[in-house]
Fold:
Amino acid sequence: MTKYLGLILLVLFMASCKTAQPILTEGKAKDTLSAAVIVDRHYQNPKLFSTLYIKSAVHYEDDNNSQNMTAEIKIKKDEKILISVRFLGITMAKALITPNKVSYYEKMNNTYFEGDFSTLSAWLGTPLNYNSLQNLFLGRAFEDLHQKELEASIDADKMYQLEDHTNPEMTKVYSFESGHCRLKKQQFVQNQKQQSLQVVYPSEAAYGVMSLPTGIVVDALQPKGKMHMDIDFNHLTIDEELSFPYNIPEGYKLINIH
Structure:
């Protein structure tokens, strides 16, 4: 698997061009809250947009590579996500994600991938769907927490923590700042398979009544090695008209993800 595919899979959650307000302050948990209250507060943070454009700087590392790139992320809410990865201004890879399909190609090896979310779920070690990847960029929990059996606590960093016991084979932990229960971290661990995925949101900024992350830090561990990525959102616009051009070039070879 190339570094570009790894990046695509993970970079893969109002008025137009609205300016972000200063970085939002974060509260420290003092009083214990029930899981239901934490979940309700988390979902009271609105994500009101029809399209979202993010230009970001990306630092990527795995056991064999380290590289700085840029990524352009376009989202049409609940319909599609287009990710373009560039190096020195040249588009090296693209991915188009819809609720039913994931498609990707990269230029270095002239290869492409097409499939559903079951392949990505197995590769990353956690169940994924379109909403999971859309939520990645929005600072929302990957899964709908209303439907989960959750245990609430306060962690060592004074954040509210929810642990999901729905699946005994996987540990899922979500951490929230106390002020508005904005998501700070989500972790998924499969100990028997030596797979884990951690997503951290260093901070959020306000866009009118909505808040969005200013960046994402992703760490993935698999039996084959580690992957680390810092994604800094340099420029973000909301509700502007976007195009989603995507065509797999002729002559590219289909690959499988294992």
